[in-house]
Each structure stands twice: as structure tokens, then as C-alpha cells.
Amino acid sequence: MIVEIEGTGNGYFQVWYQYYQNIQVAKHRFNITIDQLNTTTDNIQQLDECVNYVPVEAYQLSGMALVEIFLPSGFVAEADAITDKTGRIQKIERRFSDTSIVVYYDNMEPESDCFQVTAYRRYKIALHLPSYIKAYDYYNDESYGIKQYEGKVLQLCDICEDDDCETLSC
């Protein structure tokens, strides 16, 4: 990098850089637990989720904390998708055509904040990738946690129709 500065007076120069970090093995500052609840149909996905902050020092809280829930392929969230179990959620936002939900907290404590997510299958999709949940401190990008989970997976024979089923031996 080459920088040239000419003239007289005061100035401010800042250098910022970012490097690759393997977030799967990094030490997380947020713990996330996910419990997939049994439902009577494959068209409803219910998750019990709990998140807590892992402080560096005793009695420390996070800054504003966000929990992003990315739903499995084919599932969407409706307006009442989140059930707050602890009463600490400040705001709920749906994104990406209702396939992602963001839950806002003023701060997060070492004690767990729990909520339930309900999503509905809008599209039948087989062989999807795992979904994930990410929790992070909005003001400190080094404080985060991430957890992967499997949604309700459909097999190819579950979504085939008419002549397609014969070629798959369903």
C-alpha cells in the first residue's frame, strides 16, 4: 500500500484490515442451544432456542445482542413466529422473504434467554443444506456464536409428482 499526503494542516489517517477466521473453531462468546420439537406434520418446524452470553469478566453483559435464525429451505416465518419465554425481546424482524428472523435484545446476560420459533413449509424442497443460528454483539464483531441444525428433511419421493415418481422408484 502506498499513501502520499501533501499540504499543511492537521489530518487523520486510519488503517483497517480484516483476515480470514474459521468461525466454526473460534471461541464463541454466545452459547446457543436448539431443541427441535416434534410436530404432527412435516409442514411445521418448531424450535426451542436458548442463547446466553459468555462474559470475559464476572458480571459483564453484552452490548445490544442480535440472534439471527436462518430457516431450512422451503420454510417461512409468519408475523407471530416467535414466542418470547423470558420477556426480554425488544424487537423481531423478518428478512429475505420471511426465510430469516432477527431477534433483538438490549443486552444479553450469562443466564439463558429462551424463545420458540414456528415456521411453516411453503415449498417442498429435498436435499437441502443445514441451517444455522447466529448470535452476536452488534457493537463488537468479535463476540458471536453460531450453531448449525438440520430442519425437517424431505426425501425425493416425498415431493415427486406423477411421472417423476416412476423414474425414482417411489
Automatic annotation (TrEMBL):
The organism's place on the tree of life at top rank: Eukaryota
Signal sequence region: none
Domain Alpha-macroglobulin receptor-binding, residue spans: 62-149
Keywords: Signal, Thioester bond
SMART domains referenced in this protein's UniProt entry, alphabetically: A2M_recep (SM01361)
Protein name in the entry: Alpha-macroglobulin receptor-binding domain-containing protein
